[in-house]
User: What shape does this take?
Amino acid sequence: MELFSEKQPLRVYLSKLKAQNKSIGFVPTMGALHKGHLSLIKKASKKNDIVVVSIFVNPTQFDNKEDLLKYPKTLKKDLALLSEVNCDIVFHPSVEEIYENNVSSNDFKFDGLENQMEGKFRKGHFNGVGTIVKTLFEIVEPDKAYFGEKDFQQLQIIKKMVEKHKINVKIKGCAIYREEDGLAMSSRNVRLTPTQREAAPFIHKILKKVKKKFKTEEISKINNWVEKKFKEHPIFDLEYFTIANEKTLETLETKEFSKKNRAFIAVFAGKIRLIDNIQLK
Assistant: This one.
């Protein structure tokens, strides 16, 4: 496993591999790796000759400075995990290496995808995501890049960015990787207290019930039911729940069975924010 912290040596190394017609699979991460990340790497290794993993906590996508400061940084542990799976190259640059003297986001237009859900609550977040992902794509120049569906809105936005900027990479969405009790795996889960962690599967249980209700009940009734359930819960505060079209991410008022729909949720356990989603049929 080769380690790089600077852009230029990585580019030179990758160019030699590409000259040998090696295909490159890329998994961008912010570290604090868990089994969900490893599942992406395993998928990438099955479909590509070389797998590159980046570890970079991107400051421009955090609207909450406290969240950035408290985001877990576990590089030594991450590298140990990566050495056990089929990871060939790790890129772990500094903020200075990526942004030089200008730690700021570019302004992106994602055809309105950025204005839905997370965009309403996290100002500038998707400009930060677009900036770092585009930068990493330009450095690595992968054939395929792998993202988890837990951040489904992010996945759709990255697909839109690739389309609009004509970036030559195939974006692969991968199913949400869950704990045995249903909680969507996230690097933030380690910050949950034991009581919060024990209660956390409630989020996925609600989504599974929403999927059943979607077959027979009106969306307005489902929305009201979810809000009521979280008002009654002693630990979680609901930030938003919405049923939306998968492609446009626009909130649905009435059902559209001819199109793919998905339920999205964001909740707080104290100061820790958890998101999840489920496809509806």
Remarks:
- The chain has a mean pLDDT of 96.
- The radius of gyration is 19 Å.
- The first strand starts at residue 2 and ends at 4.
